[in-house]
Design a protein that fits this description.
Layout (H helix, E strand, L loop, with lengths): L1 H26 L10 H7 L9 H14 L1 H15 L4 H26 L1 H11 L17 H65 L5 H39 L3 H4 L7 H18 L15 H19 L3
Helix pairs in contact: 4-5, 5-7, 6-7, 7-8, 7-10, 7-11, 8-10, 8-11
Length: about 325
């Protein structure tokens, strides 16, 4: 009797878990190569749930309320430390936790506000475009006919190739213009929050006489915020270099040998030359990922961040 009851209970739990899994799989998008599980991560963070299932939303709302309890504990500890005039390293550790929560909430708000733009970028980077390899098979004929056919195919395909490249470049720049406010705001928040986190974390750890679990957690947090900032600055540097390299790649083509003037193809010649000049001109324009004009968010800026964090650490160190 007990065995049958356990079996029915297990089957019921298994069927319920399977139903929830199917509902989540139907609502979330796990099949992308980039932005993997973005909707899933937003649901875990308690920010957004793309589900119309009433029961799932009810459990999710309860989960959101429970996830707010650690935040309340952090704010209470900070208030209690300020009220009792705790040591500076304790206050800085509390402030670091409050800053982390505030920055996470602010960045989550930015993600939700620019959610449609992020989805547009997702569709762009996950798009698959099948390119058919063109194979020219010249028909039998004399050398003069071969030369004429080669010229005709050359001017035809060079315009198509440049047209495809220009189209992709324009689409990329349009998406970048759409997502730039979100990126600049995120980069600005990440930069200065990393400075504060590293400085306050270093002060707290330097005052600890023994290694505790909270010390390890502080080091872990400082490592990941600095790793995130370094990764973002490196990604921006790579993107900037790739954008600038487009113009140089076009400039380094053997166009002075291939693009020869021919009265028969003078319109094609002028069109290709104009397209090349436009591509090189656009590629020289900056991407303006500069935190709303404050500074260029590149890898060199990350090294300045470390110097700024160290300067802040030495400044607060005098008051400890």
């Amino acid at each position: 009797m007990e065995a049958s009851t356990r079996s029915r209970l297990w089957s019921r739990c298994k069927s319920r878990a399977t139903a929830y899994y199917r509902a989540l799989t139907r609502d979330f998008n796990y099949s992308t190569d980039f932005f993997f599980g973005q909707d899933f991560l937003l649901a875990i963070a308690g920010a957004r749930l793309n589900s119309t299932n009433v029961r799932i939303r009810r459990w999710w709302n309860a989960y959101r309320l429970v996830s707010c309890l650690p935040m309340a504990v952090v704010f209470w500890n900070t208030f209690d430390a300020v009220r009792h005039c705790a040591k500076l390293e304790i206050l800085l550790s509390c402030v670091q936790a409050v800053i982390g929560i505030g920055i996470s909430a602010l960045r989550m708000t930015l993600i939700l506000r620019h959610y449609d733009s992020l989805m547009a970028v997702l569709r762009y980077v996950n798009r698959r475009k099948n390119r058919v390899q063109r194979k020219l098979e010249l028909e039998p004929g004399n050398s003069r006919q071969h030369d004429l056919m080669k010229k005709r195919f050359f001017w035809k395909f060079v315009q198509e190739e440049f047209g495809d490249c220009v189209k992709l470049h324009i689409e990329f720049l349009a998406l970048l213009n759409r997502i730039r406010p979100f990126l600049n705001a995120t980069f600005l928040i990440v930069y200065y929050s990393t400075v504060l986190s590293l400085a306050s974390g270093a002060i707290y750890v330097s005052q600890m006489k023994s290694i505790t679990l909270f010390t390890v957690a502080t080091l872990y947090f400082c490592f990941w915020v600095s790793f995130e900032c370094a990764s973002l600055t490196r990604a921006v540097s790579i993107l900037t270099e790739s954008h600038e390299s487009i113009g140089w790649e076009v400039y380094n083509l053997d166009w002075h040998e291939k693009l020869e003037w021919d009265d028969q193809y003078r319109d094609e010649y002028r069109s290709v030359r104009a397209t090349m000049l436009n591509v090189m001109t656009v590629a020289q324009q900056p991407l303006r990922l500069n935190c709303f004009g404050f500074f260029e968010f590149t890898q060199d800026r990350f090294y300045e961040l470390l110097n700024m964090a160290y300067s802040m650490f030495t400044f607060f160190r005098k008051f400890v």
